[in-house]
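WARN retry 2 of 3 for item q-0093 after timeout on previous attempt; input resubmitted unchanged.
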Amino acid sequence: MWDKEKISKLQSKRAQALAGGGAERAAKQHGEGKMTARERLEFLFDDGKFTEINTLVQSKATDFGMDKKKLPGDGVVVGYGYIHKRLAFVSSQDFTVNGGSLGQAHAEKICRAMDMAMDMKAPFISLNDSGGARIEEGIDALCGYGDIFFRNTMASGVIPQISVILGPCAGGACYSPAICDFIFMTEKNSYMFITGPAVVKTVTGEDITTDNLGSAAVHSQKSGVAHFVYPDEKECLNGVRRLLSYLPQNNGELPPTVRPQKRDGSSKLEEIVPENSKKNYDMHEVIDQIVDTGSLLEVQPNFAKNIITAFARFDGKPCGIVANQPSSLAGSLDCNSSDKAARFIRFCDCFNIPLLSLVDVPAYMPGSAQEHSGIIRHGAKLLYAFSEATVGKVCLIMRKAYGGAYIAMNSKTIGADVVYAWPIAEIAVMGAEGAVNIIGRKAIANAADKEAERAKLVKEYNDKFMTPYIAAEHGFVDEVILPEETREKIISAFAMLENKEKRIPNKKHGNIPL
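OK item q-0093 returned
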C-alpha cells in the first residue's frame, strides 16, 4: 500500500487549488452575477468533458512579500475539452485569486494551453476576468503579455481564437482579445479600456465613467471592438458554443455540415424588396427568406449597421454573408462598414468558409467627414479583402449597384466566381438622375421645357443602362434570375465551388491598406 500521507498531501493540494480564492470571494463573484473560473468551464464544455492541466502551478516571485503569498493555480485555470464533441483549448482567469492578475506563471500557463491548441490544430478560447498585470512581478508580468500576444499572432489564420470578456480587461490585457478573431462581452460586467477613468481624468482632464469609457455597449456600438454581446454569462457562453458550430477546427479543414434544412422557394422576396430603388427595406428579411431556417448568426449587429456580416447555412453548409443594408445610410459604404466587412471576409477566407455578397449599394458615402476619416484607405480594405479571398465567392445583385461601391461588393472583376442579378438590378456608374445631370446638361440647358427634357433623358438612361442585361451581355453577370430561384441558385453555385482551388502569387504576405 502507498503511504497515505503522500496521498493525503496530493488531495490537500488539489482541494486548495480547486477552492481558488475561497468561499467568501466566490460568493462575492456570484453576488455580482458572475460565475467562478471553473464554473464557467463546466458550462462552456460538453458535460464532464473538460480536463484541467497545470493545476498546481504557483508563482515563483519573491519580491514585495510574494514569497509568503500563496496564489492557487496562479489565478488562471487552463486545459482542454470538447464542445459539440470537438476538441478546444481554454484559459479562464480566476478573479477570486488576487483579482486574476497576470504574473509570469499565470502567463506561462496560458501560453502552454495556446501551444497545445496550435499543436493539436484546435480552437483556443480565453475567458478574461482580470485586474491586469501583477504589479509585484513588474517586467516579468509585462513580458508574459508579450508571450501571449506573439502566440495570438502566430495562431491567427491557423486556428480560430475567441476572447470572452467576463469582467475587467484593461491596459495591455486588451491586446490579446484584439488580435483574436472574435470578442464576446456581457452587458453588465464586461469592461475594456487601455486606460481607466482615473488615468483619463489625470492626463486629459476628461471626466468619464467606466460605463461610458469601455462597456459592452460602447464596444459593440461605437468602437466596433466587440463582435457579440449577451445579457449574462450563460447566454454569452452559449453564444460561443453556437459560433463554434459554424467554424472548422483549423485552416486545413472545411466547416462542419449539419442536417440540411428543407424550405420553400423565396416567393416573398418580391414583396420585401421594392422595385423603386429609392425605397428602403430591411435586408434581414431577405436573408431570412433564403438561408436555412434559424441558421442566421449576425456578427457585430450594432456596429456599422449599413452593412450586415453574418454566418448562415445553405443546405446545412456554413457560409459567410456580406450584405448592404438599405435601411441604414441607404446601404452606402463608409469607413466603419468597410473595416467591418473586410475583417469578416478575411476571417472566412482563412477558414474555408465560402462567401455570399448581397448587393444593393448606391455609393461610397460622400462628404468631408468621410474623406477626412480616410474613406479611400478604409474602402480599399474591402476591395483588398474580396480580391484576396480564394474561397468560393457568389454575388447576387439585387437592386442598386453603382460605381466603385459595386466593384467593391464582390464583383466579377475582383474575383467573384458566380454573379447573379435580379431583373430589377441597376448596374451603372451612378443613378440615372446624377448621370443625366452630367451627360445631358447641355441638352437640358438648351431645351424650351427643361424639366420635360430632363424627364425624357432620365427615362432613356433608365431604359438603356439601368438594367442587368448589358452586364450580362458583357459577361459581368452570369445569369439574371427570378427572386424565387435565389436560394436554389445559391445552393447550386456553392456546391459547384466546393472543391475550388486557387493560389495567390508566391509572396511573404500582401500589404493591406490598414
